UniProtKB/TrEMBL annotation:
Keywords: Cell membrane, Disulfide bond, Heme biosynthesis, Iron, Membrane, Metal-binding, Oxidoreductase, Transmembrane, Transmembrane helix. Coiled coil: none annotated. It is a multi-pass membrane protein. Pathway: Porphyrin-containing compound metabolism. InterPro entries: COX15/CtaA_fam, COX15/CtaA_HemeA_synthase. This is Heme A synthase. Pfam families: COX15-CtaA. It is found in: Membrane. The keyword Magnesium does not apply. It comes from the Bacteria. The chain crosses the membrane at residues 9-27, 59-79, 91-112, 118-141, 162-182, 213-232, 252-271, 277-299.
Length: 317
């Protein structure tokens, strides 16, 4: 019974955290960050404010953030009392840590004006919190439980050091690209490069102002596409086609391809309010998926190596 409660609290945390990230993107895209004025935790001086669109968007985001805090606290208590797995403790602890940081940063952004450089980091912290909740939830899926038992009995093929380094560097670099994308939004520079793949009709435009910011993000995203293509090729050479590392390297490449397409869609819909918002939210969904897969790859490369080390230690005893 307690294990079921733990499992569903982990699932709920991942789902609600995804909603938090999506709603944060909605707040930024609709420019609703000050929908509650410069007040926190009150909203325009009230616990339940009067209805306006911007107020409800910002207030709903705050409310859902409160829900995720309660879910994470429940998951943490259950992990410590029921499961006690080290990886589960790390994931729930990381989720609480990054959620706390992004909540504090969000409150500070409301009370005191912040630069776009600081505001852009808010999205990165939200993604890290989402990745932790996703990894926690995956531990309690049927596949996650089966994989853990199999690893304990018969460790899978260890990942080569070069592949492990490539996975971690790709994940860190993806955060840089994501940060640049968030910076573009907070600088309100989305229209700096009209058209795609050309920027304002040029292959290399004049790199100043909003155009330079957007073009830098485009170049960084194109490089991430190449990096994840190479990572997929490394996985194919190092592991069988059905291996989880190969499968997820392929998933990462598919997601970055869709992300590039959605980025083009964002550009094509600049100035079209309804479609522009839809494009931005779709882009955010794909970013969450891509970073979640890359985070899983990081953990998988470590877990396979750790399982082999443990098995070697047992055999020598």
């Amino acid at each position: 019974m307690k294990f079921q409660a733990l499992k569903w609290s982990a699932y709920g945390s991942a789902i609600v955290m995804f909603i938090v990230v999506l709603m944060g993107a909605l707040v930024t895209k609709t420019d609703s960050g000050l929908g509650c004025g410069r007040e926190w935790p009150l909203c325009n001086g009230k616990f339940v404010p009067e209805y306006t669109i911007s107020t409800m968007i910002e207030y709903s985001h705050r409310a859902v953030t409160g829900v995720i805090v309660l879910l994470l606290l429940a998951a943490a208590i259950l992990v410590w009392r029921v499961d006690k797995r080290r990886d589960a403790k790390r994931f729930v602890g990381g989720a609480i840590f990054f959620t706390f940081l992004q909540a504090v940063l969000g409150a500070m952004a409301v009370v005191w004006p912040q630069s776009p450089l600081i505001l852009a980091s808010h999205f990165g912290l939200s993604l890290l919190a989402f990745a932790c909740t996703l990894l926690l939830a995956m531990l309690y899926t049927r596949r996650g439980q089966t994989a853990a038992k199999e690893e304990a009995v018969r460790p899978s093929m260890p990942s080569p050091p070069l592949f492990r380094a490539a996975v971690w560097l790709s994940t860190v670099y993806s955060l840089v690209v994501i940060y640049l994308g968030a910076y573009v939004r907070h600088m309100k520079s989305t229209g700096g490069c009209l058209g795609w793949p050309l920027c304002n009709g040029e292959l290399i435009p004049e790199l100043s102002g909003a155009t330079g910011i957007v073009f830098m993000h485009r170049v960084a995203a194109a490089l991430l596409f190449i990096v994840l293509l190479l990572l997929f090729q490394m996985a194919r050479r190092s592991f069988p086609a059905e291996h989880r590392l190969t499968a997820n390297a392929r998933n990462a490449f598919i997601l970055v391809t869709l992300q590039v397409i959605s980025g083009a869609f964002v550009t094509w819909t600049v100035g079209i309010s309804g479609w522009g918002l839809l494009a931005a939210l779709a882009h955010t969904v794909l970013v969450c998926g891509l970073f979640g897969v890359l985070s899983y790859l990081c953990v998988a490369t470590l877990s396979s190596q750790r399982a082999v080390v443990l098995q070697t230690q047992r055999s020598t005893v």
